[in-house]
Please model this.
Amino acid sequence: MEDNLSTENTIEVPVKEKKTFSTLPKDEWILLIILVASNALCPMSFSSIATFYLAVGTKKGLTISEVGVIFGIFNLLSFFLSPFIGKLITIFGVKKIFYNGVFIIAFGTLAFSLTNLIDNHYGFLAATLTLRLIQSGGSALALTTSFTIISNQFPDLMSSMLGWIEVGSGSGAALGPFLGGIIYEFNGGSYPLPFLIFGSILAIIGVLSVFYIKDFEQKCEEEEMNIEQLTLTKMMKIKDIWFVLITVFSVGVIFYFNSSSLPIAIQSFKLMPSQIGIFYLIVFFCYSVTAPLFGYLIDRYPISNILLVMGNIMFIFYLVIIGPASFLPFKSNLYSTTIALIFLAISGSSLFIPSYSNQKSIVINENGFPDNIRTNGIISAAFTSVFSLGSFIGSVAGTFSVDLIGYRATTSIFLCIESVYFILFIALFIIPRYLKRNYKKHNQIQPAIVKNQSKVAFYTEEA
Model:
């Protein structure tokens, strides 16, 4: 009797084969290439000014603080815009949001090539500020949508794909200053050329994305009408989400502080723009090697928290050496700067890559929200938003502080803040989750079967 009941009321759910890189079809490889290329060209288009904008801007009367605003304003609009993009994705679909974002940043980059024709101090400041905002809006649309695409299209390879996306993003941010410096030096200081080259390539990527980016099918509302849907407010009420987002925020702060202030930190070395670009290249190389490696490992082994702890420790080492901290018995030099930047790159990838999968796991696996495009859109939007806020504060507040109290004192302040956060992170995030996991292991019950009208649910008692 029980066997008959079990047969009648239980349905077999087909096991979906997990995707691997070897099983990806051609169209998904093209999609991945477009995502990596766009995530490289977007930051490349705005980071390309890092090695020469300070020199050009000061000739037109800009202060170091005003230059910092130009670097940081890019991320400020992304912070305000990103939370709305999650909603826009559910209305217009990922395809329209993505390719329109790429076209917008291409337009802003191409138009930036004309700003050198403005000699007036405030005119030059206003023009470059406006175009940075346009670039920012396009970048927020494209990059936020990228996270949503990989989350929906490659759920089994999410961290690995994010690693490759970050290779693109990291290469753009690092190669931008290097290539921008080389192109600028071409023909004795060609200001428009970097923007014309990068803007044109972005326009081509935008055209390709029209044909190769596809929208995801939305589940019928009737299927999910009884399921609680995620909202930004509900997500922010989850305690552990705050630690994940603060971690992403700190990566944005330190990385963009380094991006905008590194030329100031090494100006005593009297280097050419292309030589300064080599330091950015060091960050790119180390980040590009470790990001996909960490993504690969996270998809196969439960090491996310180990990487988060390691990343915070290496962040502290970076801040101690790059200053250098007052208790170190040496002054900044080429060797110490190189070592510090290696620590920065590895710490950035070990913090950024596991944070997205952690955020999604906390929302979906631990709090029971549905794994759909709405949920992934909100997760991606929050992730991008806090990173953009950190990037803005790192660029603007960092350079303002350098202008006011000097580079070494500024890095000491960041060092104190990061050290305090690391202690709180261990005490309030890592240790409680470790204890909770061990409690579940020792108090785990056997899975029980709950039958309800030919649906079978397996559950384990939560701690």
